[in-house]
Amino acid sequence: MLTEEISRFIESIEHAFVASADESGRPHLAVGRDLHVMNSSHLVFEAWFCHKTMENVSKNPYVAVTVTASASGNGYQFSGVVEKTAETAILDGYAPLEEPGMPQVQYRLMVRVDEIMEFSSGVHTDQPLGV
Questions:
Q1: What's the confidence (pLDDT) of residue 95?
Q2: Are 57 and 78 in contact (CB under 8 A)?
Q3: What DSSP letter does each residue of 45-101 carry, written as one string?
Q4: Residue 119 pLDDT more than 70?
Q5: Domain at 112, CATH number
Q6: Is residue 102 in a domain?
Q7: What is the residue range of 80's domain?
Q8: More exposed terminus of the chain, fewer Cβ within 10 Å: N or C?
Q9: Which residue has the higher pLDDT, 129 or 111?
Q10: How many domains does one find in the chain?
C-alpha cells in the first residue's frame, strides 16, 4: 500500500498533520515532525502531542495523517487507525519559559494505513489511490 514513491515523499517532508476526533466527533488537528514509514502498511509519527490528541486517540483511534510539499501544495492523506502508542521522552517538569498545560511527554503513534488519497490545494477527487 505504501509504495516506494510514497515512502520517499513522506521521508522528505518536515511536518505532518494528524487529525483526530473525540468520542462525539469533535475534530482536533495536531502537527509534528518525524513521520516515517515502518512497513508497507504502517506509519510511525513522533511528537510532543498535546493532551487532546492523546485523549482522542485513546478513545477513538481513527485518524487522518497529511503530508504536503510546501512548494507545490501537493501531497497525501492517509486514513487509518492508531494501533499503538508509546512514550519516548518525558520532561522533568522544569522549564522556565514553559506555560502551564504544555506537553510533558513525547509520544510515538503507530498508524495502520487503511486508505491513501492524493492531497492538494488545487482541484482533486478525494478518491482513494489504487495502490
A1: 57
A2: no
A3: EEE---HHHHHHHHH--EEEEEEE-TTT-EEEEEEEEEEEEEEEEE--S--TTPPTT
A4: yes
A5: 2.30.110.10
A6: yes
A7: 4-120
A8: C
A9: 111
A10: 1
